[in-house]
Amino acid sequence: MKNILLTLMILVSTGTFLFAQRPSVVSPEVHSDNSVTFRYSARNAKSVTLHTEILPEPAEMTKDDSGVWSITIPSVEPDIYPYSFVVDGIEVNDPNNTYLFANEGFKRSLVDIKGDKPLVHSLQNVPHGKVSYRSYTTAQDRTGTLLIYTPPGFDANGETEYPVLYLIHGGSDTEETWTKVGRANLIADNLIAQGKAKPMIIVMPYANTGLMFSDAFGNDMMNNIIPFIESNYPVLTDRENRAITGFSVGGGATLNIGLMNLDKFAYVCAYAPYVQTPEFRSNFGDWSPDVEAYNNQLKKLSIYVGESDQYIGIVNSAIELFNEKGLDLETMFVPGGHTWMNCKLFLATTLPQLFE
Amino acid sequence: MKNILLTLMILVSTGTFLFAQRPSVVSPEVHSDNSVTFRYSARNAKSVTLHTEILPEPAEMTKDDSGVWSITIPSVEPDIYPYSFVVDGIEVNDPNNTYLFANEGFKRSLVDIKGDKPLVHSLQNVPHGKVSYRSYTTAQDRTGTLLIYTPPGFDANGETEYPVLYLIHGGSDTEETWTKVGRANLIADNLIAQGKAKPMIIVMPYANTGLMFSDAFGNDMMNNIIPFIESNYPVLTDRENRAITGFSVGGGATLNIGLMNLDKFAYVCAYAPYVQTPEFRSNFGDWSPDVEAYNNQLKKLSIYVGESDQYIGIVNSAIELFNEKGLDLETMFVPGGHTWMNCKLFLATTLPQLFE
């Protein structure tokens, strides 16, 4: 073992391609008391600020004699937080951290404050499902991509048929955001292991933000994605075994798709839904629902949001709309903003309610 | 449609969280003549250089009046290339590009020069296999992760049993590097569609670089990974239907694992194998193989390498060793270095040779 370590040290110190170049600094450094130090090396920069969802405001970093800017945030609540540096006005992610937010627009780094107790999104010693990356054919005859979580013990040709949750990401996110940032697979693993959630299949499509503003994504869901799942997986196909959930623009899409297809979905759960879209106005502007049918047939209609979400006004307008119509709507308001920390909490709250 | 576009434009211009913040600059910009422009915004930097595997040397970038550094490289051969910027001596990836090299050590950006003809790694309109992210239990009773490619038409409980390729990444890479950088799944899709490669299962484990220097990874392969695959997938379990291939440190592991387990593997294909490891010395330092048995039983033993690979001397020492012993060894020398451009070429060369 000593030989191995010595070899490793020599290789590292000579900086071969086999190993990473030595990082210029260590960042982020999570300390045992859940404080965390962020560092960024930029000798000539005039200003480096930390933008993080830990703190409500950007924080100035200070430079030492070697040109390394740093800041330490004390006692952070264990969770996974996005952050970035703004260097002389330009946002960059952390060049010393390979854990990144899966997103097509911004490219922020993530810091995982694990704490000393396992969280609902932590990798725990329980049976694990698997996540499959699959292709399907979209309406435009293009190749669409989606991720599919199948639970522990899943057997594609076994006798068990599973209920299905369709889980939609937010604006400019990708099909990987619900697993890589939202840890949907680990949350499901943990809740299933505890007997709190039913074994289910979770489908995470890629939904271009622009498409989510029109009926294009909903049409793709109904005409391509759901048929793909139902012809390739052993799934229950009655409405009481089909749920839809999504965040932000994907939360708006959830309300559009779920409530416009009552014959298909019994569970419609929107997280901080962004509803100022042409599609939402078209569906709900002059909506005269058969309220009794909705209330009888929906096993769950919920809207969850953070109290300091920047879209709280928009979310409240949706809540008011559904309350005015007389729909049985569950709402939950929690601290925090339009964040994936809250997304994980929302999903962990929803999963035990599905397919009861 | 006009309304939607207008809404999108308004939202983008007001910079909501729903959409990415407007990037400070566009980078990389691939032009129709396959030239590519890289840009980096850093008003106060004294020097910004482009490090890319397109050019043999780092290239100075020049700053315009608005503080944007840029460089254009003419007529690039279509491929996927890693690159980074070095800003006043500090390596950073491209903050305006979300396509990143999957690696635990460095964090480089990737530029995909698609060209006007589909390449063997391009997404083409052919049947697609799927890539599954799975967990298994390692010898240390920890949760190991691996990716599994199953070919188009795969049926977990069908009558078809598949041959298996174990495909090992390089130093500090992750289990995602062979798909996200090496496009192994698309290469397999395309070659299977053309009838050039047999439908096969491809297993891509995560192998910590340090473990690959000792027998720890080989033991994990033999005791945990292969049994996991063979108890969970419909696979052929005779040696003629099992292959191992890997790059760099993973190429060294390929030679160690493949040649020390002749009863398990009929195909052993190493790409730019890094063999200056304790494990390789232990296995091959005083090796007295039954050469006839090896030559009769190995359907393929190959070593491929780029002529300008920085480890060409080490690779040649392995080639000489096996030639001296009298093993039937196929070698291929191609232009280029220790790169994933070559990894894709090597894999596309190997797949048609397997399981004939």
Structure, explained:
The structure is a homodimer of 356-residue chains. In chain A, strand 16 (300-306), helix 9 and strand 17 form a beta-alpha-beta unit. By secondary structure, chain A is of the alpha/beta class. The N and C termini of chain A lie far apart (53 Å). In chain A, the strands form three sheets. Chain A has an eight-stranded mixed beta sheet with strand order 10-11-13-12-14-15-16-17, sandwiched between helices. Chain A has two domains: 20-113, Immunoglobulins (Immunoglobulin-like), CATH 2.60.40; 130-353, Alpha/Beta hydrolase fold, catalytic domain (Rossmann fold, 3-Layer(aba) Sandwich). The first copy, chain A, contains ten helices and 17 strands. The first copy, chain A, has helices at 2-14, 177-180, 184-193, 209-213, 216-232, 249-260, 278-284, 291-297, 312-325, 340-350, and strands at residues 29-30, 36-41, 48-52, 59-60, 62-63, 68-73, 79-87, 90-92, 109-113, 130-137, 143-150, 164-168, 201-205, 242-247, 267-271, 300-306, 330-334. The longest helix of chain A is centred in the middle third of the chain and has 17 residues, at 216-232. Chains A and B meet through helix 1, strand 8, strand 10 and helix 4 of A and helix 1, strand 8, strand 10 and helix 4 of B. Strand 10 (130-137) of chain A pairs antiparallel with strand 10 of chain B.
